Amino acid sequence: MKPDYKNWMPKGMIYTALSITALFLVLFIVFGLTEIVSGVLKTVLFIIFLIGTAAGVCITVWMALVYRAFDYNGKRKMSKQIIDGIAAYIDVPDGSKCLDVGCGSGALTIACAKRNPKASFIGVDRWGKEYASFNQPLCERNAKAEGAKNTSFQRGDATKLDFADETFDAVCSNYVYHNIPGDRQAYLLETLRTLKKGGTFAIHDIFSKTKYGDMQAFLKKLREMGYEKAELIDTTDGKLMSKSESVWMGLSGSALLVGRK
After folding, report:
1. Of the N and C termini of the chain, which has fewer Cβ atoms inside 10 Å?
2. CB neighbours (10 Å) of residue 198?
3. Measured between alpha carbons, how far is 93 from 115 in angstroms, rounded to an integer?
4. Alpha carbons 135 and 114: distance in angstroms, whole number
């Protein structure tokens, strides 16, 4: 049995974009190229449906290219490169207990668990309908396929984790918080709340100012709170992706928030 980590660009989203594009094309042909309507209305509909069709084609092609880049079985395997890059920062003593927030298909949880076979890893996710193919049974099947027996998975909310303060020796996450509306710095603090004193963290996300606000001020706040180390590492300089990939894929601002509490 092989693991199936799915794709960060769900096929359902691509099919939806393709269907909408096809609808705009049909409407363009029917109302823009026939005599069903005429005059100003025909001109207006011609323009609207032409723009809709063109935009739909561009969006669908972009989604397909992103899917191809992320594909675990493809040539680029960007998802695997990112997961392995984050996991490299999780190096914990035997017997440690670690948390992956927003585990999706279990890829990061499992990668960290395989690097630290004598530690235990818990992956939590809400597994929302927008990523319907990602679920707890999928995570468990992938862990079994990878022989990662030191993993477990459960439903959870990144904005209010069901764990006591200082529960874990390490916490990690990948591309989660930017998807949640609200105060994303507060979500980071909620995750770090569960980290033990001396524990390490590696959180990868799109830390742009528009999504997170002033992250330099956040790093300063962590240091003032007593964190031994807190830094942002740019991952778009070839570390996990190229600068051009981060731009055209909409991942500009990607970085690793790493440190020790």
Report:
1. N
2. 10
3. 11
4. 20
CATH fold of 78-260 = Rossmann fold (3.40.50)
**What is the C-alpha separation between 205 and 252, in angstroms, rounded?**
10
Q: DSSP string of 158-179?
A: TTS-SS-TT-EEEEEEES-GGG
The mean predicted confidence, pLDDT, of the chain is: 96
Q: Please tell me the pTM assigned to this model.
A: 0.92
Mean pLDDT confidence for 143-158: 97
Per-residue pLDDT band for 133 (boundaries 50, 70, 90) equals: confident
Banded pLDDT at 137 (limits 50, 70, 90): very high
In angstroms, the CA 39 to CA 168 distance is 68
Phi and psi (nearest 5°) for 100? -115, 115
Q: Is 182 exposed, middle or buried (0-12, 13-18, 19+ CB in 10 A)?
A: exposed
Q: Which of 217, 155, 229 is nearest to 192 (CA)?
A: 229
Query: Tens of pLDDT along 4-61?
Result: 999 999 898 999 999 999 999 999 999 988 889 889 999 999 999 999 999 999 999 9
Mean of pLDDT values over 194-216: 97
| Torsion-angle region of 28 (φ positive above 0: left; ψ -120 to 50: alpha; else: beta) | alpha
User: Of the candidates 127, 134, 83, which has an alpha carbon nearest to the alpha carbon of residue 105?
Assistant: 134
Rounded distance between C-alpha atoms, residue 73 and residue 70, angstroms:
9
**C-alpha span between 86 and 202 (Å, rounded):** 7
CB neighbours of residue 81 within 10 Å:
14
Question: Which residue type sits at 240?
Answer: L
